[in-house]
Amino acid sequence: MAEPLIELRGISKAFGNTRVLDGVDLTIHRGEAIAIIGPSGTGKSTILRIIAGLLAPDDGEIYIQGKRREGLAEDGSDPIGIGMVFQQAALFDSLTVYENVGFSLVQHSRLPAHQIRQLVDRKLEMVGLPGIGDRLPAELSGGMRKRVSFARAIMDNPESPDDNPEVLLYDEPTAGLDPIASTVIEDLVRQIRNDTGGCSTYVMVTHQDSTIRRTADRVVFLYRGQVQWQGGIHEIDTTDHAAVRQFFSGSVQGPIQVVG
Ligand code: ADP
Fold first, then answer.
1. Which end of the chain has less neighbouring CB within 10 Å, N or C?
2. Cβ neighbours for 260, distance < 8 A, ≥ 6 positions apart
3. Nearest CA to ligand 1 atom 15
């Protein structure tokens, strides 16, 4: 079998006295579409931030394309680029769409402004929003803001192709959207995977049934700090794992304790 693109071994992380992750093992292969699911507060976003290299685990090892990561992604040692789409689109309110999407190129490249604009235009077209570069985030709908944040995540820098995102991490990309806007985003996630060529792998945290079923190949169920179950998307309706069944039926009866 091919070498995993990303591998987490025994990852643990505590905040204060609360151990959120307690020995998580997770293997991600190139081309996989993975949904991480589980009750709120189980550490799904924390895992994404650890994979993205924005947060360091307390314990455990992370291998990116077989190379052990030391420190954080900003240290620049990862052999592949990993892009992240945040739950709130996390755009700068006072910057235009052009400035938001092209932000890292303005900061980290020596490309002339007109070339950055062209690159941004191409990404805006890819997310179905041509011609909105001069608008401010406040002038966009929630779904459009999410799409702009996708465009920013898939921006590549022609000066340093090694940093171009090969893996995308999505933190609840359809949270707070109506069902139709959610479908648009789900289609876009699939399309980005096919169109960009490079970004063929993604890991997504989501609660939304439609998003899990329409965008993932494999589902990873996280609970009590560990991966409790994983399986193909078709197995979620046939598994006899009690917690997974409870999660998908939304029942208050079962091994998952209802908090509050
Ligand atoms: P999920 O995505 O599964 O809802 P999170 O990863 O966001 O869960 O959070 C897991 C737990 O860790 C929560 O109890 C949350 O309050 C806590 N937590 C997450 N990030 C921090 C942080 N930076 N500082 C303190 N506590 C945090």
1. C
2. none
3. 41
